[in-house]
Every structure is written in C-alpha cells, then in structure tokens.
C-alpha cells in the first residue's frame, strides 16, 4: 500500500510483532498502535515518522528509545553453548508440532469426506428405493387408505387459461397433515417428489407424470451455474425446462422454518397454491426434503428482467411514461390481491417489496415475485431481508419498534417504489454535490410544494410525461410513506384509483410551465376505519372526480 499515509489501529487487542515492512512504506507519516497487546522489537524507522509514532500501553514492545524497554540480546559470546542448545531444541519441537498438526488435519479431513460420501450414498439409495415406479405402487397406496382424485368426489382443479400445468407439493417420510386446511392431499413417499398444485388431487393417470428431485435436477442441468439467475446466502433461483417443454424458475431455499412452525409452514404453502393473479408470478409447486429443512419452489418463468435492472441497469427496453404508470398500477393490483384478495387465513404480507422483486415481462407488465415466504424461510433469513430493505430505504420506520412487517409496511414500500419509478432514483441516493445520503421522499416534497413537478420526473424521459399524472403519483407516494401508519391509504383503494385514472395520468402532452393545480387531485375522504383513503368510498364521488 504505497500510498498509505496515516494508519490508526489503536484499541484493537492486536498481538504479535510490529512488522518491519511498515517502516518501509514510502508515504507513511503517522502510525498509532497504542492500547494493544503487541510485543517484540519496534522497527527503528517508525520513530522518525514526520507526524509521530504512538505505541503506549503495549507492555511487550521493546526498542532503543528512552521510554521503552530495551530488547534482550539474542546471543552472548560468553555463553555460546547454553544459547545454541535451546535454539536447536526449540526449532526441532516446532518441526515436530507442524508435522503432527498436518497429519491430524489430513486424517480429520479424510474422515469427514468419507462420512459425507457414505451419508450421500445412503440418502440416494433410500431415495431411489422410494420412487413410485408402476401402477402397482399406486394400488398399494390406495390399499393403505389414500384416495386419488378419481375416487374423491366434489373436488375439482382450478383451470387457469394460458398457464402451464400446475404442480403439487410433497414431502418425504410421514406426510404433513393438511386436514387443518380443510382438504386432504396425496403425498408422495419420494424424498423430494413434487406433483402438481391445484385445488384438486391428482388422478391415477397423472401419477406417471409427477416430478421428482431427479427431474428438477435434469430441468436445471443439476442446478448448474449456467442456469443460475440470482443467488444470495440462503436462496438461489435457477432457470429450468421441464420434460413437457415448460420453462420454469426453481427457487432453492436452504434454510426453512418447517421444523419451527409446521402448521404455519403448511398454511404458507397452501396460500401460495391459492394465489392466481395476472400481476403475481405464478406459483406452480414445491418439493421439500425430509423434515422440510430444504425446499424447492417452482414458479412460471418470466422472460423479462427486474424493474431495478430496467431503471438502473443497461436495459434494452426503455420505460416510457405510459409504461411506468402501467407498472405502478400492476404492482398495486398484485399487492392488493395479496392483502385482501385471498380468504382468511391465507392473506399475506409481501415483506420484501422493492424494484428487484418486480419482474417485467416482454410487454412491460409488472409481476411481483418472492411473495408469501415469511412462514417458509427461516426467521434469520427474513431478518436479513428486512435489513436489506432498510438499507434500500423501503422499510417502514415503525419496524424499528414493532419488530414485524405489516400491510402498512408493504404500503410504505409501495410508496417508495412509486417515487423510484417516477424519479428514476432509488429511495435513498447519494447527493453528488454534498456526498451525503438523501431520501428521495425528502427531496421530492419541497419541489412538489413549489409546483416544480418537472424537476421531480426522471430526466431520461426528456419531459415526455403527464405533469398532472406525475404530481398525482408523487403525492400518493408521499401519502403511502407517511410516518403515521394510520395515515396511509389501503392497497385496494389505491388499485381502484390507479385503474380509474390510468388513461388520464398516462397522457404525455408537453405542457408549458409547472402545471398549476398540482394538489387538486387530493380528495378529503376518510375510510370507515378512520384511515384517510386514497379516494372517496362513495362510488358517485369516484365517478365525479377520481383523478383530480
């Protein structure tokens, strides 16, 4: 580090010697190693540093200055024999210890590898022995009292137009009891066998097409790096192709919550199976290892990229103003469906809403990903996720004292997303003039009050925006990001309003000036709960002036 000028490593409980090489740094002018546990001789060159060398409270240091202990002589002409013998014995002992340590590590490492190999071999053998190979296996299951769909009356699978055949999920070993959910499910005995998820049970004819872990491995080329879409410490997403040609995204979760809350885990999986919406990535199925410690969630593959990539990366698809309004409306619809579109207890909070979890298909339509995972992944994984959201500026402030993410937190994150889409800036960005972190919401608010709407909008749009629409969306975002959770609108109201006003707010005239009447779209309305609504709950009022 030839450019290093000042180095302060004081109060770090450092041990050992001060390296001689530090004294050779050409530009070093100051060094502070005080209040450590250092020992041994101090390089003499450090005492001549221009701005000083601090070394106090290191009792083991020695050197050739007045206030430090002199170093003992390394050899003496009067006692050559007594000094040479300990040196030889000491070096011999060190050699023996080094060899012994290396042998111990080699033996330990070999034993560990052998143990892993044996465990994997036994696991694979057990998996292969449990695969259903013929119709006789099906009959044996039926004899055990488990009925297939053809024998179960009154249960019909939901059909989804233009969607791939849905997957069911299954566990290895004793199948989880899904009776708490109001219906039974056939569970395969395969360690990670996955069938197809719908509200009905598979017929006998479908058993032959059930997926196994082997098929998932084949679909993803054994989870190869070439098929890896994204990855973090606890999860990874791979692109795969099933035997019927369906392209899927397989999310591998290496740390689940199954063993800590089996019932919550089952309800979470059931909720994912129930979610069907045009603005939510379609969940197709799952498979879990014994005990649920490792799970694979299978989703329909979305060929586009994330909203974060299109806004901040090198994207080939330019997001014009009309597309951005449609994206915001799509996010609102998907989030409203999660909050209120499912029956209890299957409603869910997204908990991880940011631009990286909004996928855009080839037409630019928004689909939310990574929803409904709070009761599937381990608690520490969700905690890490919330820390990331906080760093991105998308985590509601009440999380600091509540310690949990609620629907209001999702609404806060939605407001941050609106501002990101409108301004082209993340919720928190670095001001180049001051080199400090700035909240986009705090930056936008005074500009809106002064009517300087065009300064708020993403400059890459080059003014081709609806000033009225930009002002309206920015005000909605600030309302969603209110520090008072009760002052935030609910997602169903927001989705309805965005749907009603999309055409007007999507117009892109080049209007002169700043656009007077910026705040005129706000309607003083209150929901029955006392929460200010994003528009009046009176349907006549909505038709009279929903977008002003």
UniProtKB/TrEMBL annotation:
PROSITE patterns: PROTEIN_KINASE_DOM. Residues 223-502 form the Protein kinase domain. It catalyses: L-threonyl-[protein] + ATP = O-phospho-L-threonyl-[protein] + ADP + H(+); L-seryl-[protein] + ATP = O-phospho-L-seryl-[protein] + ADP + H(+). Its EC number is 2.7.11.1. Keywords: ATP-binding, Kinase, Leucine-rich repeat, Membrane, Nucleotide-binding, Repeat, Serine/threonine-protein kinase, Transferase, Transmembrane, Transmembrane helix. It is an enzyme of class 2 (transferase). Its main location: membrane. It comes from the Eukaryota. The chain crosses the membrane at residues 96-120. GO terms for cellular component: membrane. It is found in: Membrane. GO terms for molecular function: ATP binding; protein serine/threonine kinase activity. The keyword Ribosomal protein does not apply. The keyword Nucleotide-binding applies. This is non-specific serine/threonine protein kinase. It comes from Ceratodon purpureus.
